[in-house]
Amino acid sequence: MSLFWKQQNKAANYIHKGVVKLISIPKEMKDQMIGRIQAYFEEERDEEIGELGADLLLDIFMKELGPYYYNQGIADAKALVEERWGSVEEDIEALKRSTGGGRYR
């Protein structure tokens, strides 16, 4: 495995040898997400969904939809880095000194 993939796996804990893993979410955050799913079902669908059902639905969302959000996050980060890198290149070019028009030409 290349160093790049080792760093990616360590940083994101997401992809390793093509196997998708769930992102670790702190329990308190997961509990909030489950509560929001339950509230959505009650408010928008007039249905009650239990904690287990909401947890299973959240797992499905994370497995099936999470990679789309993850990939978009990577694309957004890449675009930002490329934009910033362009600015760095301009700044470095501005540091160059003139080499023409000297006294001993």
Give structural notes.
1% of the residues are buried. The longest helix is centred in the last third of the chain and has 29 residues, at 66-94. The N and C termini lie far apart (54 Å). With 105 residues, this protein is mainly α. It has helices spanning 3-12, 27-45, 51-64, 66-94, and strands at 15-16, 19-20. It has four helices and two strands; from the N terminus they run H-E-E-H-H-H. The mean pLDDT is 82. Helix 2 (27-45) crosses helix 3 (51-64). 69% of the residues lie in helices and 4% in strands. It has a two-stranded antiparallel sheet. The protein is rod-shaped.
Main sheet?
A: 2 strands, antiparallel
Mean pLDDT: 82
Order of helices and strands: HEEHHH
Unreliable spans = none
Q: Please give the alpha-carbon distance between the first and last residues.
A: 54 Å
Structural class: mainly alpha
Count of beta strands? 2
The 3D shape can be described as rod-shaped
* CA-atom Rg in angstroms: 24 Å
Looking across the biggest beta sheet, what order are the strands in?
Answer: 1-2
**What percentage of the residues does DSSP assign to strands (E)?**
under 5%
> How large is the count of helical segments?
4
Report helical residue fraction.
55-70%
Explain the layout of strands and helices:
Layout: H1 3-12, E1 15-16, E2 19-20, H2 27-45, H3 51-64, H4 66-94
Structure keywords:
two-stranded antiparallel ribbon; single chain; 4 helices; mainly alpha; 105 residues
What's this entry about, in short?
The protein has helices at residues 3-12, 27-45, 51-64, 66-94, and strands at residues 15-16, 19-20. With 105 residues, it is mainly α.
